[in-house]
Write a structure and sequence with these properties.
By secondary structure, this protein is an alpha/beta fold. It has one domain: Glycosidases (TIM Barrel, Alpha-Beta Barrel). It contains 15 helices and eleven strands.
């Protein structure tokens, strides 16, 4: 690799990420059903109908998996907790085995010198709460606050940092407007409610954690660079609308107590009554912001209802996801987030990575190039004076890539999904050499 640890400021944290449903194996340890289980069981939603019942079997191999993180030379490990593993029905009865698992995970990180970076919700909503409308139901802020209290009362004293919700855009827009992720809805009113409630839930969780004395609380948002797909003013306006929905809405709520006019033009009539009154909760002060960044899109107008846009293919190199590689976008969003939070807060790159089908032992050059290019843009921002404090690769392991099943391979470690054997890829070894102290 081109970059190495010593190119970065002292204390900069190199991390790698996973999430509960994507690796743990939800069929184990008394976890309750989630909306990802029912979504995956519905033909047509997930490639080959694949689901997370076994996934990487991390539930039983956690120690071995943390050993791999330690041997990679990471400073931090970003993981998520499954609501349905802790509270199988979403509320009420606690699954002690689930709490014990996260307790061992946090201690396992600390024993290996890995800072535990915890995300409370990375998408597997308990099915019992989905039955009650899930993210559409205004009560979800209170349900999530109760879950936060339950899990953080157990591990909140030892985590390095906590973010309540991974990628509010995916939880709401991707899952309720585009229907690509559970619950697979395509409904503008459901979308507006989910977009607002996900922010209320974020704020309620922050309040609860402040009350418990948990330290270092942030938000993890995802961003996608929006190019105009052609030279027309109409394409430029479409790209601006896309940018407002994807990149500005959640920042606006959290840091500016407002939603962008370009989003309100389509969603305002569908927002819950008195939505403005929730901004004090939504904008609870934070200690850091996380940026998840992968790619860009080329936006053009479409002859449909609002938001009246679609995307067209672009010319840059693509990954196995068919996502263009555009590292400069990361620099753009580090700046956007820095401005949006009043230039106050430490920023972490909490996800960046690429999928490519690579066998263990084979060269993995596109991935190391991708990491180098995104580390380079991170360094550029640091050199300009931005307080970027860490970079997190997605992901440690090949895993369950949601609606695309197991074939999209983001891991530094190859997983054979028949034998569950782990094998570090060439990129793992290259990164380990770059991180060596
Ligand atoms: C992010 C998700 C993560 C994974 C990567 C590829 O949006 O947070 O779970 O799916 O994309």
């Amino acid at each position: 690799m081109k970059y190495k640890r010593s190119d970065f400021p002292e204390g900069f944290q190199f991390a790698a990420a996973t999430s509960s449903y994507q690796i743990e194996g939800h069929g184990f340890g008394g976890a309750g059903l989630t909306h990802w289980d029912s979504f995956a069981a519905t033909p047509g939603n997930v490639v080959r109908g694949e689901h997370g019942q076994t996934a990487c079997d991390h539930y039983h191999r956690m120690e071995e998996d943390l050993d791999l993180c330690q041997a990679l030379g990471l400073d931090a490990y970003r993981f998520s907790t499954s609501w349905a593993r802790v509270l199988p029905e979403g509320r009420g009865q606690v699954n002690q085995e689930g709490l014990d698992f996260y307790d061992r995970l946090v201690d396992g990180c600390l024993a290996r010198g890995l800072n535990p970076m915890c995300t409370l919700y990375h998408w597997e909503l308990p099915a019992a709460l989905a039955d009650e409308g899930g993210w559409r139901n205004a009560d979800i802020g209170n349900w999530f606050a109760d879950f936060t209290e339950t899990i953080m009362s157990r591990i909140g004293d030892r985590v390095f940092s906590v973010a309540p919700i991974n990628e509010p855009w995916c939880v709401s827009w991707l899952s309720h407007f585009e229907g690509h992720h559970a619950p697979g809805l395509r409904d503008i009113r459901a979308t507006a409610r989910a977009m607002h409630h996900v922010l209320v839930a974020h704020g309620r969780a922050i309040e609860v954690m402040r009350g418990l004395g948990v330290k270092n609380l942030g938000a993890v948002l995802n961003f996608e660079y929006a190019f105009a797909g052609d030279d027309t003013p109409e394409a430029r306006q479409s790209a601006e609308r896309y940018d407002a929905i994807y990149n500005q809405f959640f920042l606006g709520g959290i840091f500016n107590k407002s939603y962008p006019p370009l989003v309100l033009e389509g969603l305002e009539e569908h927002l819950p009554a008195n939505w403005e009154k929730d901004f004090d909760t939504i904008a609870a002060p934070l200690d850091w912001v996380g940026v998840n960044y992968y790619t860009c899109k080329r936006i053009v107008p479409a002859d449909t209802g609002w938001p009246s846009l679609t995307d067209v293919p672009g010319p840059l190199q693509k990954t196995q996801m068919d996502w263009e590689v555009y590292p400069e976008g990361l620099h753009h969003f580090l700046n956007l987030v820095h401005q949006a939070n009043g230039k106050n807060l430490p920023i972490y790159v909490t996800e960046s990575g690429m999928a490519q089908a690579v066998e263990p032992g084979a060269a993995d050059i596109q991935r190391t190039d991708y990491i180098d290019a995104h580390l380079g843009q991170t360094l550029r921002a640091i050199d300009e004076g931005l307080p970027v404090k860490g970079f997190t690769y997605w992901s440690v392991f090949d895993n369950y890539e949601w609606a695309l099943g197991y074939e999209k391979r983001f891991g530094l470690v190859h997983v054979d999904f028949d034998t569950l054997e782990r094998a570090p890829k060439a990129s793992y070894h290259a990164l380990a050499a770059a991180l060596a102290k």
